[in-house]
Amino acid sequence: MLPDLVDAVGAEHVVAGDDPAVADLCADEALGVPAGKPAYVVWPADRDEVAAVVRAARAAGASVTARGAGTGLSGAATPDDGAVLVSFARMDRILEVDPVDAVAVVQPGVSLEALDAAAGEHGLTYPVHPGEQSASLGGTVATNAGGMRAVRYGVTRAHVLGLEAVLADGSLVRTGGRLAKVSAGYDLTQLLVGSEGTLALVTEVIVRLHPALPCRRTVLAPFSSAQAVTGAVARVVGAGLAPSVCEYLDGPTMRAICDNAGLALGLPEGLLDADHLLVELAGRRQERVDEDAEELAEVLGSLGAAEVFDLPAGSARRLVEAREKAFWAVKAAGADEVVDLVVPRSAMATFLSRARAAGGTHGARVLGCGHAGDGNVHLAVFQPDPERLAATLHDVFAAGIALGGAVSGEHGVGRAKAHQLAAFGDPVALDVLRRVRGAMDPDGTLNPGCSIR
Amino acid sequence: MLPDLVDAVGAEHVVAGDDPAVADLCADEALGVPAGKPAYVVWPADRDEVAAVVRAARAAGASVTARGAGTGLSGAATPDDGAVLVSFARMDRILEVDPVDAVAVVQPGVSLEALDAAAGEHGLTYPVHPGEQSASLGGTVATNAGGMRAVRYGVTRAHVLGLEAVLADGSLVRTGGRLAKVSAGYDLTQLLVGSEGTLALVTEVIVRLHPALPCRRTVLAPFSSAQAVTGAVARVVGAGLAPSVCEYLDGPTMRAICDNAGLALGLPEGLLDADHLLVELAGRRQERVDEDAEELAEVLGSLGAAEVFDLPAGSARRLVEAREKAFWAVKAAGADEVVDLVVPRSAMATFLSRARAAGGTHGARVLGCGHAGDGNVHLAVFQPDPERLAATLHDVFAAGIALGGAVSGEHGVGRAKAHQLAAFGDPVALDVLRRVRGAMDPDGTLNPGCSIR
């Protein structure tokens, strides 16, 4: 296989998988997913090189795993042993930002930060903020990444208008376009988004951009229970306030992220341990945002918020950033697993309560925060014993599924949750998706250990 | 097959396909698609009866076509000869409107009008308005229907959160849920939306609702060219005005729809024949909508609008309704075909110009209107000679595809555009989608004459 890979990308862009220089590339940020042992790591420069790599690997019976920035939380970028690991680090160009059609055309190795900055030069924004702006476009397309702004703008899926990708047989496919809408056959774009490199390797992405909203107000409201927060979220969203951030944080998580960020909000001591709702409003005109913030404060006050803190811009920005980094805070605090379940918005508090009860049964500490507007709950689970951790996770997932939830809201399935998806997904749907996968990759070349199995 | 169908739905809900009573059910509203000759028409009452019908048809080697309200424009509800035509007219219940999660759960036979009215009782709206509010939810899911409000809210695809459906083998599958977002395996919901009854028969739909926006202002601006309208659209959308309607109408179309609706706008005679931009703004507070309407008028004036008419509420409503009925106006005027191409928003005027030139070459009259904010152009083509009509359409489609377009923006492929999709779609993508179809329906039971072939 090595000569073919060298032919494909050039000798200087192939490294053996056991070279210590590539050790950091053999895993992503998922807790509990061990690093893979790829045969080779390659850095293609363009679509043709990606196609040649896939053909070379397939001919040799090796699998292929795509890797963006490696910031994923489910192990989708962790290669199978013996795989060819394809880094998109060299395919990192923003090919075009088009303010007339409000789209950008980018290579998969572009970071969210770079894309958003380029869009900003035209008064536009790419509003997918999954908590790590160094994430690559390709990685976020593969995992259908979400984040805090999804409550207003939707997840990655809502922004991908077209793709260019290499299929398992090395052929190049183009889907969608610079088109706001399309109804011309099954939507292959949408099938590829969230498929975690198991159906194709994305080589180019056309995304929708939005007008930037320069004016903001951010409000923090401590409540006496998660149930009260859940009720408030429905009212805030239902009132049409269209928050750009609508986050739940329990007391310990709030304390952890403030500690981690060195952030002192100046809350009265007792209130820091409350159940918090953090809401950001954004708009084109400051006076409207201010007026909405007053309406928001009234709604939250009437629903039993202990206080409604109107955060100064600096504190607001730092708190939102600290919340985005919550994963790192709980990782630093020694969390053994981070759960990314999604449930109906109205069921968030019930789910949290049942998850904590499951933790209690198995001696695990369970902290929570979440994208409250979307019902997407992130739980940090502290239980170092592997068996008791597994038992806790089983009960937590079962509780979420029983409430109508799904095993991942935004981190994806990857390797970390493939067995939970198999256990808790609709069996008929899984059978269909296995057949779809088989039809698109009959030899199991693309990321075989990942996603639908 | 008849005894099995009678077993499935009861004798009173099966009628032979050649019974004159069902003649109206054997076609939809697509121009140029002849009525099919189904073996039987059946009216199942629930998911289990749908499954039994599919099993009975498959066992007999007959195909199955689903039919909603029959308002489709591409022949997707027109059965193959010998098919079992499944009417969803009896499955027309709104099972739930949930204002807390802002979702509705409906059977496929529910009309858009009924759903929007039920949502309205909770201060919510289902904003998919494809021009015919008697359309069924199931039909709009099958075709991924769009319409005028898509510029603000997105098409049907953006609103479907979960499905229950019967697969080709009669098994029942459930996808998604009351979940604002999900990243748990390939998105089967999105694969089924727009698949026109070729992958599954939908038996239940979970849709997202939005807060209703009670305040409106509507502006009509005649320009001297379609190019000027296209330029204005980019500015209106780019300014963040988030129009709820953003329509282009050429002079003849404006005249036809006003005549058809008996609507006198009182425009100076010369201006009626201009290229028109119709923009509706909607919001929660009238003073903001008024302020935005003033900003809009300034923008349009600065871009060369001959006038900016602030339409009184009654005229505005009637004009928007008349535009929604444009298909009927051009049908009444004798149009031989209606084209539904989508191109990049910025390419709309160029496409219109090339389409008219193609009409000139083949002696066809080509009128146009379109969802300008989405680049979705509807052309009425007048050319009674079948060969010259076909030549015109070929050149029109080729022009749209050359500009980066797709063969359908919102009407779907159905039978009417299956050959255009085959001719103009990405061949690798079509091959993939054929394999997906084969994996899900290996015997070709579901609507075989339709969509990807």
TrEMBL record, chains A, B:
Q: Where is the FAD-binding PCMH-type domain?
A: 34-212
Keyword check for Oxidoreductase: yes
Keyword field: FAD, Flavoprotein, Oxidoreductase
Output one GO MF annotation.
Answer: oxidoreductase activity
Q: In its keyword annotation, does this UniProt entry include Zinc-finger?
A: no
* Cofactor(s) required, per the database record: FAD
The record's InterPro entries line, in alphabetical order, gives: FAD-bd_oxidored_4_C (IPR004113), FAD-bd_PCMH (IPR016166), FAD-bd_PCMH-like_sf (IPR036318), FAD-bd_PCMH_sub2 (IPR016169), FAD-linked_Oxase-like_C (IPR016164), FAD-linked_OxidoTrans_Type4 (IPR051914), Oxid_FAD_bind_N (IPR006094), Vanillyl_alc_oxidase_C-sub2 (IPR016171)
Which PROSITE patterns does the record associate with it?
FAD_PCMH
Coiled-coil residues are: none
Q: What is this protein called in UniProt? A: Glycolate oxidase
Organism lineage string: Bacteria, Bacillati, Actinomycetota, Actinomycetes, Pseudonocardiales
